[in-house]
Recover the amino acids of this structure.
């Protein structure tokens, strides 16, 4: 009890969290400030500005929600959906299905656009869904479906969605900082992500960004968002107002932000921007290709037709023991890879190469370890 | 950008966050584990067990919600309230009022039991409210009203509330670990707190505990809780199930927990239990009395009739400049105290003596600093 017994270190090559650089862990342990301290407000502003750069957006309302990735999903849902709204959600894995559940809890009538797990949606499919449901107010797609490793293209969808007066909403939990993702160029109206994937920050915050169309939708609400904690009409008075004060100033206290997590996110984003987005995305692509060559040389095969670079979802080979293999990787090598999720449980492994974890050292190590354990 | 510029250290004597011990900051920066790693599950189990000891409860369903204190409030509300339910909430400050807002967003018909800011509620007042609203399903009180510094007694209420078939729900954000709080002995059915007050852990988690009556109420729900992120019917499968697995085992993945924050909370709770609850509560009482003597000797007076030990809410003396005084404390001394909140803005200061901050050193320092700045 009296000592902080540190855990044995793992090499995190699962679906997240990803390995956290020492610089970020160091920042996390900086002295705690008050959430209205001018020093903290400046750190938060800097964090939001870095998030804009990583999201490639000029959206003023870009900030980290005070919860893990799924709090970001819920934040978008409670603010953008009103009871009775029709929405179209692409469901091709666990996270599309989860968004359906979350939006239904907000009173939405969800039209699930379904595809087999591992596949993605085409422009034509979305156009047809919009024709079937012309009153849809939102079209939501998962950029990186963490349960299947499928990589959903996003270019070209916004024009289609906007032409019908709907908002284009995106889950980018497993892509932000690892895949090309151009919020403004691609016309995305609202987006959420997590810190613990390709940003290589511990879990605890969920970066979100809302564009002008989304703001207009929220401003026109007839009902309060059902969540107080995630109500953007109040959060924006804390995250956006100029000036600094503990009392009568322009910043309005809403809730106590997770101060130390903000330090860590600021540092993680600094690392992303020092590397440069383009170089970082290229590194993820190269590491994915190296892993893929190695896995396929071992006779293993990918489940999605169009795989993410950040998460590699492969079939468990005949004869291999799912749990025993993962346990040996964990116990003998200290390597975590992910089990299959949902209908993929027992059928798939998920190898993440995200952020700080996407290195030649880790690729060659996990290939060597798998060769040994599966031999 | 490239360096983690550490903030200047503050002595946090506001309404929270409180000063975080170096041991806790050190634990916070331990290597990140996966949320299904056996090491992490063991750390989480230990954290929940320590929380039970600090809450003085045997409630199995005791765990930290993955958000700051207000996420805990919302967690209780979305799980215990169904649309149309009548609830009675004691409103004598900002946080009672906030609970009213949160529960109304869950569809509750809230009967606000009002008292002037700074006062607390008697058994007779609650009995009368229950007589007026015999269908009330919840009676909620704020143990430590952070906006006024008022200390609400809780003993004896549960029998009354239970005799009418209602649940007794408590906000203990600013009391847990600093004031006597006996969840089981006092018959509290559901309770939430924060980590950044008397536990002296950074903000980011909200400890909650649900007793048998609350579980029965949740099991009998006709509707899904409106929040997926905070849905206890799913969270309990992660926090309570025995066994450990990334796939087919008994632990069911819900969301990625804030791993490093759990390390910090475990360490903060270890410090609480090493000191001992009784000694810790006595220390908070003694430091409050010392501060009170000093403030009153300066001619300052308390706003609440029955003050918290953990938070001292005093009137701003005539002629003193609210913002300038706090700014000088911050800039010259590195001391943060709190401004007034809500109707108290510009009228009150709030001096927190919480957890690691409740020391003779801090009491004498803040008194000396105030004497100097107000001279």
């Amino acid at each position: 009890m009296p000592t902080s017994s540190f855990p044995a270190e793992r090499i995190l090559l699962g679906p997240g969290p990803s390995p956290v650089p020492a610089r970020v862990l160091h920042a996390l342990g900086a002295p705690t400030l008050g959430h209205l301290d001018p020093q903290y407000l400046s750190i938060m502003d800097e964090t939001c500005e870095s998030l804009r750069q990583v999201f490639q957006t000029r959206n003023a309302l870009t900030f980290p929600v005070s919860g893990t990735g799924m709090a970001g999903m819920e934040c978008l849902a409670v603010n953008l959906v009103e009871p009775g709204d029709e929405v179209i959600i692409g469901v091709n894995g666990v996270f599309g299905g989860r968004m359906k559940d979350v939006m239904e809890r907000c009173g939405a009538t969800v039209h699930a656009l379904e595809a087999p797990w591992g596949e993605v949606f085409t422009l034509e499919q979305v156009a047809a869904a919009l024709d079937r449901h012309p009153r849809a107010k939102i079209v939501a797609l998962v950029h990186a479906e963490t349960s299947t490793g499928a990589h959903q293209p996003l270019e070209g969808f916004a024009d289609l969605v906007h032409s019908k007066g709907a908002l284009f909403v995106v889950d980018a939990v497993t892509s932000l900082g690892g895949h090309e993702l151009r919020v403004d160029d691609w016309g995305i109206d609202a987006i959420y992500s997590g810190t613990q994937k390709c940003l290589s920050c511990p879990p605890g915050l969920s970066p979100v960004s809302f564009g002008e169309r989304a703001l207009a939708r929220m401003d026109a609400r007839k009902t309060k968002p059902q969540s107080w904690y995630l109500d953007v009409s109040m959060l924006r008075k804390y995250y956006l107002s100029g000036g600094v004060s503990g009392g009568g100033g322009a910043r309005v206290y809403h809730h106590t932000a997770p101060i130390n997590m903000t330090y860590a996110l600021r540092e993680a984003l600094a690392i992303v921007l020092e590397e440069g987005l383009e170089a970082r995305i290229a590194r993820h692509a190269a590491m994915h290709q190296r892993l893929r060559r190695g896995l396929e040389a071992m006779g293993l095969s990918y489940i999605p037709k169009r795989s993410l670079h950040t998460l590699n979802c492969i079939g468990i080979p005949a004869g291999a023991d799912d749990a025993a293999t993962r346990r040996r990787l964990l116990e003998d090598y200290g390597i975590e890879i992910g089990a299959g999720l949902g209908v993929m449980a027992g059928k798939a492994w998920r190898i993440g190469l995200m952020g700080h974890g996407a290195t030649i050292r880790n690729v060659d190590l996990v290939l060597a370890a798998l060769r040994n354990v599966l031999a």
Summary: The first strand of chain B starts at residue 11 and ends at 12. The mean pLDDT of chain B is 95. The first helix of chain B runs from residue 22 to 28.
